[in-house]
Queue: 4 jobs
Job 1
Amino acid sequence: MVVGTGLIPLLLKNDLFYLNWWGGLVFAPFAVLVGIFLLYLILFKYEKLNNIMK
């Protein structure tokens, strides 16, 4: 969801920022990078993170 939220303004509106829930500006490429990082953690580091949380 984070990746899509950042890609919509970049691709469709040709804009680097979008408004978040509270009306503040969010830098779209940052949202894309955070989303990709979260996907990486889930796909490749899930077991390690799961063991840490136990």
Job 2
Amino acid sequence: YLFIAHDLAVVEHISDRIAVMYLGRVVELADSETLYARPLHPYTEALLDAVPSTDPDRTGTKVILTGDVPNPANPPSGCHFHPRCRYAQDICKQKTPEWRELEPNHWVNCHLAEDLDLVGVG
């Protein structure tokens, strides 16, 4: 089955494998447990941070996406997420990232994924 949603709180309980999309492109793909515990793409980190929690001990930096969502009919050059990414570097603006498997069955489209220590919710 294919289940499409914006609410990762619901997706976690329904899906075994999750593909995160931004502007019509898959930016991360992994099994749900891995994706929630160790996101590799900054957009995934932001989506996970937006999931409400009843855990009073949950801490971390609040991920606030700035800027406007680009026009999908005329997306920005390079990584389509770079205008809203707090980690963006020059390469992100100039070159489209390649689809890479950084961990077994954990794929990402991000130039900086190896260097980022993103926060999950697992």
Job 3
Amino acid sequence: MLHVRNQRAPLPEVRATKAVPPPTVTDGQARVNARDPFFDNAKYLAIVLVAIGHAWTPLRDDSRTAAALYNFVYAFHMPAFILVAGYFSRNFTGRPDQLKRLVSGVLVPYLIFGVAYVLFKRWGTDDPDHPFALLDPYYLTWFLIALFVWRITAPLWHIVRWPMPIALTVAALASFAPSLGNDLNIQRVLQFLPFFVLGMRLRPEHFELVRRREVRLLALPVFLCALVTAYWSVPRMDSAWFYRSAAAQDLGFEWWAGVVMSLALFGCGLLLTVCFLSWVPARHRWFTALGAGTIYGYLLHGFVAKASRWWEWYDVAWVHTPAGRIGVTLIGAAVVTLLCTAPVRRVFRFMVEPRMDWAFRAAGRGGSADGGSGRAGRSSNDAGGNRRPIKAG
């Protein structure tokens, strides 16, 4: 007699179903999804500080408080901006697509805005003979030529054994070398270099460390001490040190003062940058999307800043009252915020991110001419990728 109790029951028939394809993600969507809100927030807040600092410039002479706040902000706002720029340049190796973005996103805007600012000065100051000097960056266009030099030398900083000591040495040597001259604003290029190199050496884990709660708490007394020191320094220190645009001898000091101030300002700028970044939100905020347009705010707000001096907006007596200074601060922040918005970016994209496909040869095998974006003029402000989100703190 046969026993069938261990016989497996037949499986039910499986009906064939059509496979559902995964949702299509466009290249533009992938780029948006890859953005880290922490860095967009940091860039937006840094550019607001830049604009506020420029708005405070004419207020320093009649207000020690305004001068102290000016020194405080100038101690770290550009170091923070440059450090983040270095972080996004850490993957720059000189590939053809990277070089094309560097030319179209940095060098060409430098030329465009160099001409635009000179023409604006000729018109705004009734000075039709004001010269255009290719090697003498006008006003805030120095940052573009500096970024070009820093980024084009990025591969070098990847291969040297001691990048930070070398960068600090270069900055210190430049600080007492007036013979370097003013071409390409080379003093600023070299004296701000350590912040860029340091940014290249950082990894996402370092920013996660900065975002820890204990770092934020420690930042509060550091900021307070910095504000007190800034107030104390107003009658005792030349604020030109913060610009890094001249050698010590040009400022009337001995050569060794350049070395001391170069290292001291680096340490001070780095400490305050860490404190600043510790308070940058890691989640999306109402201003996060504006972080993608900070280069627009930077380059365009200079026209407003210059016009306010040339056309004597600061001659109004109310501006130099406490309420007026607060008003100037709010206006400066509002103007640069407006200039970072999407409508403004669409209008001025031809100047800030010009399409340059026509200027370059088509890509050969082994890579896209424009890094896969189909556009050589993509913002170099995001070069290096923004792939790994920082954990919210």
Job 4
Amino acid sequence: MGYHLCVVFVLILICHVSVSQVGNRCYMRNTRIAGICKISSDCPEVEEQARNGVDPTVCGYFQLTIPIVCCETNSFADGDFQSPSKPSDSFSNGDYNNNGAFVSKPQSSRPNPTSSSNIYFFNRPSTTSERNFPDRGDDSDSIVYPNEISSNNNYLRKSEAKCLEYTKPLNDVVQAIALVTDTEVVNINIEKCENNGVPLIVGGEPAAPGEFPFMAALGFIVEDEVEWRCGATLISEYFVVTAAHCTHTRDAGSPKIVRLGEIDLTKKNGRTHFDYSIDKIVAHPDYSYPQKYNDIALIKVKRKIKFSKYIRPACLYVHSNIVEELSIATGYGKEEYAASENKNKLMKVALHVLENDRCSRTFGGDRKSLPRGIISSMICAGELKGGKDTCQGDSGGPLVVTKKNNQCKFYLIGITSFGKSCGEVNAPAIYTRVSEYISWIENIVW
């Protein structure tokens, strides 16, 4: 009985999702020409495409058998649709579907004009009926909720567009036959990555090859030898982001090498890692040692980074409010506070995102480095029971979260900044809040 109920549920779900795609905005798979998803019989252009040997871009299926296609539209004058200001590399409120079509979600409001190069604006299709979006409890990473795009709900930031671009290869498409008669093959989207969640650094566990492909190590030259003293996070083809305090040391100056794709830094000839010489370092202009504020920096490498199974950027978390309660920290640092040297092997640890007031009680007395206390551009995270934490050598490394239904896509929420000790009871650490610096990052990186 359970088997039949499951099949019926899946079929109902497919029908519901497919019919809801009619009227959504889309782009042609090969030409990137703008269009609207329509029932195939309502799109005369499909017949012409077929005569020319061009396969239509499919948005989905109505009742499992009738194709919903991306139908080219030139009706910009009526206000129903406007192509993006940067059609070659921009995205709207949506994602690529299993058939290669980029399908957006409709909204009733319209954006105001802007001159910002970091924001992609779109006119939304006019709607006269209420649109119901899924409840947050059924969150799917393929769905972008209107209230999660930005402060005015009408645009996609450049970093969000790049997130979609960089993570597209992390999904695979397989074909399956629906369990009803006279139906076509249905495409199913499958996650494709090494991350299978974080079981349970200090109190952490070793990371697997390719599990955190955005992890980077910063190498300093000391007496002709490389010392890996800080972490960083890959965010584009040329840039990693790290802590500003990692950009200069008294004995070794600034870092010279960025290593990517490695979980064991003791290997000199690893098969998966690549070393990149540093071209320039851009610390945040408001960072001022010894204060801890604005502890963030961008590092550009000299040659373009080639992405692979082991090397791929993390997405930037653009929302100031972090809804996920559990985060993941990774680093090559010490496994206990008094250890004489770094382990140089990538570790992972799950940490709770805490209210900043909790860290204010821990660090409130430090007037020299924190004259304004713990502020909104910082994140407080840790395990109050102790035993799990980041430590020396993890500085500059990532604090990330994943969405509920997609463990393959990582969002960078914080950069390891400082702490009081490693893994002690009631001693959480501070991370630079990435969402506070999105505009600064976008203006430099893209």
